[in-house]
Amino acid sequence: MTEPPAELAARPPSYARVSLAVMTDANAANLLGNVHGGDIMKLADSTAGAVAQRHSGGPAVTAAMDEMAFLHPVHVGDIVRTFAQVNWAGRSSMEIGVRIEAQPWDSAANEPLHVASAYFVFVAIDEHGSPRAVPGLLPQTTEERRRMREAQIRRAHRLAKKLEIDQGREA
User: What's the number of domains the chain is made of?
Assistant: First the structure.
């Protein structure tokens, strides 16, 4: 068996890990005066996109948001940080996990608060917009192996749900 090309050699999650930070402002406020969930989702998607691009070595597009759980509100003026990494990689798709934390802008004494988590599925594309191969994932820590196992469970659930829906439509 021949070795895969260097650009497709399996990579550890740390290879493409990304963190972004923004200070929220009143333009992002919802009717309750907190930061709109859609703004948080966009930031998470942007962070995940950077990870997917890095891991795959080229363009990648959002195919699905598997799950996003909002745990606490984000307040206008909070510093919001996202942390993302590849949890699983297949032939052309990847699951990217994103953790979102917030901290008041005016207090370094407050510990960052975990405010949301999300799981995105990205597909790497070529210059024609067709799926292209991505490097495998080489988890190195117990946490990375746990994240990969849980991503495989989410993938199995997505595929089973799609199959059940398709079968129901054919009946």
Answer: 1
